[in-house]
């Protein structure tokens, strides 16, 4: 199924509305994809959900990107504004992939929950305009994620990082919460300067380290 721009709304329903999607073939939105307030969108696809421009999610909305056991990917090529909840509700271990060709702006006060991998795969990079907390895994394949002390990237307890190189790292500060060993994939400009911490006696899952 291919759409131009796609808007999921609950206005005509007069209250919360749920949409579902399934199938083994890619779903492509060639324009913007918008999830409005009071909408829950739940997919169990075994193929990709592709957004070729911007992704916009309103408050009091939920995008369940995998409600079954399929390891699917949601690709977003444009800017991301998330003021709702991005989550998964099964065992599929889905991925949100940033795969644009221009720098992607990430904004919003929403949440990413449960076992979702956040894949940076855009050579032009991405910039945080608000704090972003990742719950499970950050995979750095291509491009830098630019952060500041205000717009901070945070990994929660037991969250992991995969990849990183001189062409893909966190360009700025980031925070790790927890008591486990961790390597911060940080750098500046065109240089990667990873920093490692190791858990010690008395460490707590609520400990916070900013590098």
Blueprint of the fold:
Blueprint: E1 2-3, E2 6-8, E3 17-21, E4 27-29, E5 33-35, E6 39-43, E7 49-51, E8 55-57, E9 62-64, E10 73-76, E11 80-82, E12 85-87, E13 95-98, E14 104-107, E15 111-112, E16 117-121, E17 126-128, E18 132-134, E19 137-142, E20 145-146, E21 153-155, E22 160-163, E23 170-171, E24 174-177, E25 182-184, E26 186-188, E27 191-192, E28 195-197, E29 208-210
Parallel strand pairs: 1-4, 2-5, 3-6, 4-7, 5-8, 6-9, 7-10, 8-11, 9-12, 10-13, 11-14, 12-15, 13-16, 14-17, 16-19, 17-20, 18-21, 19-22, 20-23, 21-24, 23-26
Antiparallel strand pairs: 24-29, 25-28, 26-27
Explained architecture:
- This protein is mostly beta strands and 211 residues long.
- The protein has strands at residues 2-3, 6-8, 17-21, 27-29, 33-35, 39-43, 49-51, 55-57, 62-64, 73-76, 80-82, 85-87, 95-98, 104-107, 111-112, 117-121, 126-128, 132-134, 137-142, 145-146, 153-155, 160-163, 170-171, 174-177, 182-184, 186-188, 191-192, 195-197, 208-210.
- It has a 10-stranded mixed beta sheet with strand order 2-5-8-11-14-17-20-23-26-27, with no helix packed on it. Strands 1-4-7-10-13-16-19-22 form an 8-stranded parallel beta sheet, with no helix packed on it. Strands 3-6-9-12-15 form a 5-stranded parallel beta sheet, with no helix packed on it.
- It is globular.
- The N and C termini lie far apart (44 Å).
What's the short story on this structure?
With 211 residues, the chain is an all-beta fold. 0% of the residues lie in helices and 45% in strands.
């Amino acid at each position: 199924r291919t759409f131009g721009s796609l808007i999921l709304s609950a206005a005509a329903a007069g209250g919360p509305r749920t949409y579902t999607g399934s199938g083994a073939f890619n779903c492509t939105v060639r324009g913007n994809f918008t999830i409005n307030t009071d909408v829950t969108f739940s997919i169990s696809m075994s193929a990709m959900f592709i957004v070729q421009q911007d992704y916009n999610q309103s408050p009091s909305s939920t995008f369940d990107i995998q409600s079954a056991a399929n390891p699917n990917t949601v690709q977003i090529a444009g800017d991301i504004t998330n003021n709702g909840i991005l989550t998964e509700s099964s065992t599929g271990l889905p991925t949100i992939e940033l795969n644009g060709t221009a720098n992607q702006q990430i904004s919003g006060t929403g949440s990413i929950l449960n076992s979702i991998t956040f894949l940076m795969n855009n050579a032009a990079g991405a910039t945080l305009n608000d704090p972003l907390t990742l719950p499970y895994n950050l995979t750095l394949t291509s491009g830098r994620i630019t952060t500041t002390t205000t717009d901070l990237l945070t990994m929660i307890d037991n969250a992991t990082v995969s990849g990183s190189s001189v062409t893909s790292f966190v360009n700025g500060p980031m925070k790790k919460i927890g008591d486990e060993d961790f390597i911060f994939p940080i750098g500046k400009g065109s240089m990667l300067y990873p920093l490692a911490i190791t858990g010690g006696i008395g460490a707590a899952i609520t400990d916070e380290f900013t590098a």
